[in-house]
Amino acid sequence: MTESAPVQRPKEPHIDRTVTLQMQGDWGAANLHRVCGWISMELTDRCGPGTRMAIWNGRGFVDGVAAVVKHEVDLAMVTPAAFVRAALDGRGHYGGVAHPELRALGVVPQRDRLVVGVARSLGIRSFGELRARRPALRLATSFDDGVNHVGLAAGELLRRSGVDIEGWGGTFLRDERPFESLDHVRAGRADAIVHEAVMLPAWQEIGADLHFLEVERPVLDGLEANLGWPAADLPADYFPGSPALHTLDFSDFLVLTHEGLPADLAYAIAWVLGETRAVLERQYRHLEPERSPVTYPLDPVTMGRTPIALHDGAAAYYSALPPT
């Protein structure tokens, strides 16, 4: 029997010069910072003596896009990935200022959704019922400050759905991260929530006490048409007793850069993402894939399917992958 030829992987990069690279992650202790640390370690091993990598704290949203546009950093992690589309031609909160120079180095897959939950005790199961009842809700979500994607998305979704929290006598409880918002519901300070990070265990703790509202099709269609924000499904019983939901997609960590990044660095970073993925995967394997902040096993082909154009150097890596 003739042995098959070994599969040829893309060539490992070696950059002889000293490299200084600036990255921006999240608040400092979450998944985007972890990805930056992984890139930093593996890339430094393949660059010249004296190479240094810096990871700046950020928020992982519009601030990351702004940092790349201003060349304050060489790359930034931004989530959800598809929300960066609006920056290319200046839609929505980018105020008509286009940034066609933005490029992707890849995505780290993370299956996430933005969901709307209302206390079961209120008996509201749909946006139609919510508009008819007009309850004075105490709604937990993130800051709608033009930067936080959760707050931006919650605001757009509620407005387009005809929901006026404050006009109906209700209040917002706003925080930066999901943990505080989930705590508001758990402690009884909030009777509604609009948020993401649906894989967090806290959602399972509060989910049985919430009705999750499916977002209406015209609203989702408008968000995609106007802003490039896609919709996605969540299966039945993802939360205790919840139905299948059609809602706003909030998936994937985008590794964002600009067209001016040297091509050899762009290739090297893409190679690190695809070829050393086990370094990141092993940090999440104690969790089930569907309950993990990173949806493993990571697949290099999928990591190269980005919502904005790949940097030419990164594209050279993904195009060199063997056919599947």
Structural description of this entry:
It is elongated, with a radius of gyration of 21 Å. The protein is built from twelve helices and twelve strands. By secondary structure, it is an alpha/beta fold. Strand 6, helix 5 and strand 7 form a beta-alpha-beta unit. Strands 5, 6, 7, 8, 9, 10 and 11 form a seven-stranded mixed β-sheet that branches. A five-stranded mixed β-sheet has the order 2-1-3-12-4, with helices on both faces. The two termini are 23 Å apart.
How would you concisely characterize the structure shown here?
By secondary structure, this protein is an alpha/beta fold.
Count of strand segments = 12
Q: Which bin fits the share of residues in helices?
A: 25-40%
What is the helix/strand order? EHEHEHEEHEHEHEHEHEEEHHHH
Number of helices: 12
First and last CA, distance: 23 Å
- Share in β-strands: 15-25%
Rg (CA only): 21 Å
Average of pLDDT: 97
Structure class: alpha/beta
Mind summarizing the main beta sheet? 7 strands, mixed
Shape: elongated
Q: Stretches where pLDDT falls below 50 for ≥5 residues?
A: none
Could you give the topology of this structure?
Elements: E1 20-24, H1 31-44, E2 52-56, H2 62-69, E3 75-78, H3 85-89, E4 102-108, E5 113-119, H4 127-133, E6 138-142, H5 149-160, E7 171-175, H6 178-186, E8 192-195, H7 201-207, E9 210-212, H8 217-227, E10 231-234, E11 245-249, E12 253-258, H9 263-275, H10 277-281, H11 300-303, H12 312-319
Parallel strand pairs: 1-2, 1-3, 6-7, 6-8
Antiparallel strand pairs: 3-12, 4-12, 5-8, 5-9, 5-11, 10-11
